[in-house]
Design goal:
By secondary structure, the chain is α+β, with helices and mostly antiparallel strands. It has one domain: Tetrahydropterin Synthase, Chain A. It is 29% helix and 31% strand. The chain has helices at residues 25-32, 65-80, 85-88, 99-110, and strands at residues 4-16, 41-53, 83-84, 119-127, 130-134. Strands 3-1-2-4-5 form a five-stranded mixed β-sheet. Strand 4 and strand 5 (130-134) form a beta hairpin. The two termini are 23 Å apart. It binds nickel (II) ion. Residues 16, 35, 41, 43 line the site of nickel (II) ion.
């Protein structure tokens, strides 16, 4: 049976600071620029969660979008929405909350909740012009 993808779009707002504690302030500033601002800054993150699989003959669904939406709200938005990613979350205590790392963290939080036979792909927009895709 042919595979088909279903995508659920959600969004969250969060603050972050890009900083490598093993570097000098000068090097952090040189590498991360404005994103190294000590007092943090915010983004409106747009999240697209794609589940790829075959259509269940009983329901006609790959996954019920209500279930997928609730999953994202419960596992991702409840954790990260309106938070300071550096200060308020366990996930980014030791890793830099770049769009890349946020997408990987989101994937790892959702992957166990999706059927093993289904593929999961994350697209995360940090700005309307910048987004990351994982896995790629
Ligand atoms: Ni930023």
């Amino acid at each position: 049976m042919n595979k088909i993808a279903i995508v659920r779009c959600e969004h969250f707002n969060a603050a972050h600071r890009l900083h490598n504690k093993d570097w000098t302030d000068e090097k952090n500033q040189a590498i991360f620029g404005k994103c190294n601002n000590p007092n943090y800054h915010g983004h409106n993150y747009e999240l697209e969660v794609k589940v790829i699989g075959t259509v269940d003959p009983d329901t006609g669904y790959v996954i019920d979008t209500k279930i997928l939406s609730d999953l994202i709200k419960d596992r991702i938005l409840a954790r990260f929405d309106h938070r300071n990613l550096n200060l308020d979350t366990e996930e980014f205590k030791d890793i830099n909350p770049t769009a890349e790392n946020i997408a990987i963290v989101i994937y790892n939080l959702l992957r166990p909740e999706i059927k093993p036979k289904q593929e999961l792909k994350i697209k995360l927009y940090e700005t309307p012009r910048n987004y990351v895709e994982y896995p790629y």
